[in-house]
Design brief:
20% helix; 7 strands; 145 residues; 3 helices; single chain; alpha/beta
Length: 145
């Protein structure tokens, strides 16, 4: 599969962090400038792991970590990557803080805890929902926001 549309509506089970990262690498290879990936899942589900895979797929060599306390990290690769973490924000905070301004037009934006501020996520965003199914098992649902 080489088109993101082929993934929409799919559920993919991963059995390790490496498999979750590999899926992130695969997905980002199908995305272009202005793409937004909205990640949803409980604490520890693997949202940051998925984004690490996206960063690898973009050729980013920097250490990728969740920007929980600073809200956003930027990385340079084949395309720029903005990594947002909305865990500590309410929707009102996200709007008043102008978080939508971090959505890159010339790169890819990955938003952890996107469900905390759904109104800032574009309708055409790719939704990645990660469900914990076991110690290392994850069920990853891919859809349009």
């Amino acid at each position: 599969m080489t088109n993101i549309d082929d993934y929409i509506g799919r559920e993919i089970e991963t059995g390790s962090e490496n498999e979750t990262k590999a899926l992130g690498r695969e997905i980002v290879g199908m995305l272009g400038e202005g793409s937004v990936v909205a990640l949803v899942g409980e604490l520890g589900a693997g949202k940051t792991v998925f984004i690490k895979g996206m960063a690898e797929g973009l050729g980013i060599k920097d250490l990728v970590s969740s920007p929980s306390f600073i809200i956003v990290n930027f990385y340079l690769g084949r395309l720029p990557l903005a990594h947002l973490d909305l865990y500590r924000l309410s929707e009102i905070d996200a709007i008043s803080d102008g978080i939508y301004e971090y959505l890159l037009e010339d790169g890819i934006t990955a938003v952890e805890w996107a469900d905390r501020a759904p109104s800032i996520i574009p309708d055409e965003a790719i939704k990645i929902e990660i469900e914990v199914k076991g110690v290392n098992k994850r069920l990853i649902r891919i859809s349009i926001w």
